[in-house]
Amino acid sequence: MAITSSAKKAHRASLRRRVFNMRRKGAISEAVKRIKKLLAEKRPEEARQLIPRAYRAFDKAAKEHTIKKGAADRKKSRLTRLIQNVT
After folding, report:
1. pLDDT value of position 2
2. Fewer CB in a 10 Å sphere around the end CB: N or C, the chain?
3. Which residues span the domain enclosing 37?
4. Residues 21-50: tens digit of each pLDDT
């Protein structure tokens, strides 16, 4: 348990940031899940239309330092390759 007032404040801030980070990571995973589900159903054209939404989620998370920029770029690249290999 935090003892000093600054530690208590830091803990409150971390709890607030955690909510935002979880929301951003949830948006990423939701976008990727929808794309992979469409690919499993053999609907690559619809999956390709969802790529901008996934890119937006990755870029926003990287901009807000929820994930690292390199990780976002790597995940975007792998997602794009996945769609290209299916079609």
Report:
1. 82
2. N
3. 25-86
4. 999 999 999 999 999 999 999 999 999 999
> Domain for residue 15, yes or no?
no
The pTM of the whole model exceeds 0.90: no
Counted domains in the chain: 1
Question: Which string of DSSP letters, residue by residue, matches 5-61?
Answer: HHHHHHHHHHHHHHHHHHHHHHHHHHHHHHHHHHHHTT-HHHHHHTHHHHHHHHHHH
Residues in Cβ contact with 64 at an 8 Å cutoff, skipping those fewer than 6 apart: 20, 24
Q: Are 35 and 47 in contact (CB under 8 A)?
A: yes
Query: Does residue 20 form part of some domain?
Result: no
> Taking the chain, what is the end-to-end CA distance rounded to the nearest angstrom?
53
Q: Three-class SS of residue 62?
A: helix
CB contact at 8 A, 25 and 66: yes
Q: For residue 17, how far is the Cα from the chain centroid?
A: 15
